[in-house]
Design goal:
Elements: H1 6-17, E1 23-24, E2 35-37, E3 43-50, E4 53-63, E5 71-74, E6 88-91, E7 97-100, E8 106-109, E9 122-125, E10 131-134, E11 140-143, E12 151-152, E13 158-159, E14 169-174, E15 177-187, E16 195-199, E17 202-207, E18 217-222, E19 225-233, E20 238-244, E21 251-255, E22 261-267, E23 272-279, E24 294-297, E25 304-307, E26 311-313, E27 322-324, E28 335-343, E29 349-351, H2 356-364, E30 369-376, E31 387-393, E32 399-401, E33 408-414, H3 418-432, H4 437-464, H5 483-489, E34 498-502, E35 505-512, E36 516-523, H6 531-543, E37 552-558, E38 561-567, H7 575-578, H8 581-584, H9 589-609, E39 613-615, E40 624-626, E41 632-634, E42 641-643, E43 649-651, H10 664-669, E44 671-673
Parallel strand pairs: 24-32
Antiparallel strand pairs: 1-9, 2-3, 3-4, 4-5, 6-7, 7-8, 9-10, 10-11, 12-21, 13-20, 14-15, 15-16, 16-17, 18-19, 19-20, 21-22, 22-23, 24-25, 26-27, 28-32, 28-33, 29-31, 30-31, 30-33, 34-35, 35-36, 36-38, 37-38, 39-42, 40-41, 43-44
Length: 684
């Protein structure tokens, strides 16, 4: 029995003899079996071999306090020691660290070209994971963070230099092969403003040019874990840095052998690394996936390729990108269309020391310029230029549309907008038609008189919708919005601005005067929702006030156009979460229960507590909108039915709504009861 424990005893004795401090000196090299541990015990450095290559050995840094061996830096990744007896890591007279094999052949060296005048240099392993060679006075003369392999850890300044390719992150060739693969990540070759993953010399994925944000990426997975990404410029170039909140788990960024940038945290409950974010996404996030002048719309339930405004697809798909519908004629009054929350395209020209107006002029005065973008850079030394003017000549590639959280304004050159054309035509026609001024005046008076008549008719119809004839109707305010303002807010109902569409028309995102974001519902001319349903929705939402009902901000009637302006809710509708596999996981039970209670409160208000007794008749997941706090708001009252105060049951000759979301007695027998709540299958 004593002999059985003898090998284990010898092993423990040998471990005790190994180095366990945090530094190397010329008098104390790193030998096979030695392990240096940082002062706080976070990281370790030593010799190691991988599972499938025991004949090759390396010197590297790994997490010391994590049971799964995880390497963050390897010195000789492309030149392993292949002799049976590993060598040693020693200092030279020039204060370089040199890795030698057993024959004395140099495997790897630091090459810092520093000669100590007196005293002793040392290599110190810090708790950040950085191996630093310090001069006798403590100054750092070389550090491993300046020569990364495939991993970035928090608080590392990762250089975005476009000149020195040795500063790039380079992926392993395979899961058990740490040698360099074709995938690398670093600064763009033409500027230091953007991060690119390369497959050889071809871009594989690109993070948009830095728009000056103090924090350009932030992830929060629970109350005690926040990770932020920042870019800084201290005068010697741009640096990318990751920081995490206090007491956060171990976090790392790795570029894996498939070209995927993974954000990982250590999960102590499962004793494994968990990926909480990764790029590129499996949809159209890969570089230039939608072709020239195409963009990936990430605001859709499933991100899809679309063409920029004024362009159409070439062929049946986006493999060749898009082409202009109408050729630009330089100097013919072109304008610039504002596309918000965009990932700026690649292949830009970076012009420094320009104001916004000067940047606009740089593009507008050059017929080859197709777009521009402008930003003021933060985290930049105040002695440096803090302006950022980007212009694009020719094709626009690798463009993406984000939600309101990310992106910036892209100003796209287009032919004169319809509103501008109309204004120009009026300027020409009015002088020419001056002789017909009397006729025009007469027509205007007739139209005005007709408008008043229609306004009285609409108001009369609105009042007729309230069967209880409650007092106070005469004081209702229905905010009218000018049609030209809606044209401007939606860029003439641009597809880029469209949030979604349904049986009654399309919904666009817009920004009215004063910077207020709104959702604009444009009823299609061929939709089933006519004047009656339109008046119904205006009256109901204007009269109903509840935190779980969507707010109506205004409406517009212009010729055949009927439009409703609602408050904008950033999380869109509930079905965007329920039926999207990637977003469904974010609906944890407390959030689901919060939504259920909010919908129930809204229904109770409609059925019992409001001045009008109302049955919605089309309540479903797509008609439940979510604000930034995931508070539900019931919308789309076009099909709602108003009860008289004395009615408890109503029969109808027409069943409206969506089958599967209505009570059986209503869909089959055309009757419904106030005593029963409307059935809603939210697939919870």
């Amino acid at each position: 029995m004593a002999m059985a424990y003898f090998p284990a005893f010898i092993f423990l004795f040998m471990v005790c003899l190994c180095q366990s401090d945090d530094r190397l000196t010329p008098a104390k090299p790193l030998l096979p079996g030695d392990v240096l541990i940082s002062e706080g015990g976070v990281f370790a450095i030593g010799f190691f071999s991988l599972k499938n290559s025991t004949s090759s050995s390396y010197v590297g840094i790994w997490y010391n306090n994590i049971p799964e061996r995880t390497y963050v830096w390897i010195a000789n990744r492309d030149n392993p020691i292949t002799t049976n007896m590993p060598g040693k890591l020693v200092f030279t007279n020039s204060s370089d660290l040199v890795l030698l094999d057993s024959t004395g052949h140099t495997i790897w060296t630091t090459r810092n070209n520093f000669t100590a005048g007196g005293g002793e240099t040392a290599a110190v392993l810090l708790d950040s994971g950085n191996l630093v060679i310090q001069s006798p006075n403590g100054t750092g003369i070389w550090e491993s963070f300046h020569y990364p392999t495939d991993t970035i850890v928090p608080n590392v300044r990762f250089s975005l230099s476009s000149v020195d390719v040795t500063k790039r992150l380079v992926a392993w060739k395979g899961p058990n092969d740490p040698s360099s693969s074709n995938f690398s990540m670093g600064g763009d070759t033409s500027s230091d403003l953007q991060i690119v993953i390369w497959n050889g010399t071809r871009p594989h994925w690109r993070r948009a040019a830095w728009g000056g944000e103090a924090v350009f990426g932030k992830f929060q997975r629970n109350s005690n874990f926040v990770m932020s990404q920042t870019i800084v410029n201290t005068g010697d170039g741009y640096y990318f840095t990751v920081t995490v909140s206090v007491d956060a788990p171990s976090v790392r960024l790795t570029l894996d052998y498939t070209g995927m940038l993974n954000f990982q945290r250590w999960n102590s409950s499962t004793s494994s690394w968990t990926v909480f974010e990764k790029f590129p996404s499996p949809t159209c996030d890969r570089y230039a996936f939608c072709g020239p002048f195409g963009y990936c719309d990430s605001t859709e339930y499933v991100p899809t390729c679309k063409c920029l405004d004024g362009y159409e697809p070439i062929g049946l798909n986006f493999s060749q990108g898009c082409q202009r519908k109408e050729e630009l004629k330089c100097g013919n009054g072109e304008s610039f269309l504002t596309l918000p929350t965009m990932k700026t395209p690649d292949k830009f020209l970076y012009i420094k020391n320009r104001t916004f107006d000067q940047c606009t002029a740089e593009c507008s005065h050059n017929c080859s310029c197709t777009a521009y973008a402008y930003a003021n850079l933060k985290n930049v030394n105040t002695t440096l230029d803090q302006t950022r003017c980007l212009v694009w000549m020719g094709e626009l590639v690798d463009v993406e549309k984000f939600d309101s959280t990310f992106g910036e304004n892209l100003y796209l050159r287009v032919p004169r907008s319809p509103v501008s054309k109309k204004s120009t035509v009026l300027k020409i026609i009015v002088p020419v038609m001056a002789t017909f001024l009397l006729l025009i005046t007469c027509i205007w008076l007739v139209c005005k008189s007709r408008g008043k008549h229609q306004s009285k008719k609409v108001q009369k119809n609105l009042q007729c919708l309230n069967p209880s004839n409650e007092p106070g109707n005469e004081n209702l305010e229905f905010p009218l919005v000018n049609f030209e303002d809606i044209i401007t807010a939606t860029n003439n109902f641009s597809d880029y601005k469209m949030l979604g569409k349904g049986g009654f028309g399309k919904v666009y995102k817009g920004m009215l005067e004063g910077g207020k974001e709104v959702a604009i519902k444009r009823l299609s001319k061929g939709s089933m929702q006519g004047a009656e349903e339109f008046r119904n929705e205006v009256v109901l939402i204007a009269k109903l006030q509840h935190r779980n009902l969507v707010r109506l901000l205004g409406f517009c009637i212009h010729e055949d156009e009927k439009l409703l302006i609602y408050e904008f809710l950033s999380n869109k509708s509930l079905d965007a979460f329920l039926f999207d596999a990637t977003r469904k996981s974010s609906l944890h039970w407390p959030t689901r229960f919060k939504i259920i209670k909010g919908v129930a409160r809204g229904l109770l208000y409609l059925h019992q507590d409001s001045r009008l007794t109302i049955i919605h008749r089309d309540l479903k997941a797509s008609n439940i909108l979510l604000d930034t706090d995931m508070c539900p708001k019931i919308s789309d009252f076009g099909m709602a039915r108003i009860f008289c105060a004395s009615e408890q049951q109503v029969n109808t000759t027409r069943v409206v709504g969506t089958y599967g979301y209505m009570l059986p007695e209503y869909s089959m027998e055309c009757s419904f009861f106030l005593s029963s709540l409307t059935f809603i299958a939210l697939v919870f």
